Amino acid sequence: MSYLDNVRVFVRVVELGTLSAAGRDQRVTPAVASNRIKELERHMGVRLFNRTTRKLTPTEHGRVFYDGAVKILEAVNEAENAIADLSHNPKGALKITAPLGIGRRLIASGIPEFHDKYPDIEVRLRLSDHNVDILSEGVDVAFKLGILEDSNLRMRGIMNCERVVCGAPAYFEKRGLPQTPDELIANKHDCLLLRYPGSKEYFWTLQTPEGVKKLEVTGPYDSDDGDVLTQWALDGRGIINKPLFEVKSHINAGELVPILASTPPLGVQLAAIYPHKRFQDPKVRLMIDYMAERCQRLIGKMLA
């Protein structure tokens, strides 16, 4: 076994807390991950972890080795990146994430073409509408709609995206068409919300003549999948607040009707988020450049 591979598994076990999680991250079985930790412990002659049935926590020796191991891996990555820059032949794995909606529409379909251009880059894509802890999960690039809240991360804006509040004609025939933001609450309209631990969408933020207004809207059900909300809206089950490019085709077809045009929701930025040191990696730069151009082009077509 490669000593560096052993060190990589060790670092991820410390960061993720279990052999199974570290194994998934490094694409090895828990048994292989366990053997790599044991080999490191034999090599150094000390125990690196205290083991329980649920979690591994580093011993004092393990904590000391972790600090040095992180620096070793960073130095190796920087050296490999420098060589890749000189040779114009980037190699290695990229772990990227995106929300389900933009992941399906914009990101996932571009991965094969990206790999065709850079065949030595292995892409690991994870799609989720949940908040992803970029640092602890070892993510290289996260494409997201939102704002940067972690000062340990950096952001490259791709484009500003208009949002729209809309619902199906059948819903408005049944419940009436809201004329003002306050009517959403006063008339107890069924507003469909994206909810998950850490979600910021428990309220809608609209632009009014009096300024930005937060509305604590409610509805009979919610989901952690934005596309589920769109389908419920299409079925006449409620009102959604979505990026316009995601629902423009349904609006053009008359399947959804935009409302509150004079008090639209605040827009949202599509951006690439990455740890500070990752942008030194040519693979990260290439992925962000490629996806930025692709997203701008495809969203432009969706809005045409």
Automatic annotation (TrEMBL):
Record carries keyword Transcription regulation: yes
Start and end residues of each HTH lysR-type domain: 1-59
SUPFAM superfamilies assigned: Periplasmic binding protein-like II (SSF53850), Winged helix' DNA-binding domain (SSF46785)
Gene3D superfamilies named among the record's database cross-references: 3.40.190.290, Winged helix-like DNA-binding domain superfamily/Winged helix DNA-binding domain
An example molecular function term from Gene Ontology annotations: DNA-binding transcription factor activity
Pfam families with a match to the protein in the record: HTH_1, LysR_substrate
Keywords: DNA-binding, Transcription, Transcription regulation
Highest rank taxon of the organism: Bacteria
InterPro entries hit by this protein: LysR-type_TF_proteobact-type, LysR_HTH_N, LysR_subst-bd, WH-like_DNA-bd_sf, WH_DNA-bd_sf
Assigned protein family: Belongs to the LysR transcriptional regulatory family.
Full protein name: LysR family transcriptional regulator
Source organism per UniProt: Ensifer oleiphilus
